[in-house]
Design goal:
This protein has 141 residues and is an alpha/beta fold. It contains 3 helices and 6 strands.
Length: 141
């Protein structure tokens, strides 16, 4: 699994002109990709790693502060752009494999007592954010 984690002042997700999720306070926006061979243990480990990252103000983590997360599934994180001009998506896990692992990531974050909102898996989403810092990290397990 791969996550692009951004410290944000605020963020939101819109689908078909309707806001489906939003953070109105500082937190983390997590763009989450799943590849072949990923499993529940990896989803849980990545959730712990992301929530323990000390990237919030004063070198604190979401787990320490209770900061909210907005999780958005994004298969394009596994794009292969090494050949030509058209990306290949073959490294991304199919939806029936990826969706339960995204759900497991979210559930693990919730079990840690943190508020989580999500986009809609597989939807064409518009993500709006104000990056704070800016702080953007790529995290993998």
């Amino acid at each position: 699994m791969r996550a692009v984690v951004q410290r944000v002042a605020r963020a939101g997700v819109t689908v078909d002109g309707r806001t489906v999720a939003r953070l109105d306070e500082p937190g983390l926006l997590v763009l989450l990709g799943v590849t072949h061979g990923d499993d529940e243990a990896g989803a849980e480990a990545l959730a712990r790693k992301v929530t323990d990252l000390r990237i919030l103000r004063e070198e604190r983590s979401a787990a320490q502060t209770g900061a909210p997360l907005l999780v958005v599934s994004q298969f394009t994180l596994y794009a292969d752009t090494s050949r030509g001009r058209r990306p290949s998506w073959s490294a991304a896990a199919p939806g029936n494999v990826a969706e339960p692992l995204v759900d497991r990531f979210v559930e693990t974050v919730r079990q840690r007592g943190l508020p989580v909102s999500t986009g809609i898996f597989g939807a064409d989403m518009a993500v709006d954010l104000v990056n704070d810092g800016p702080v953007t990290l790529i995290v993998e397990v």
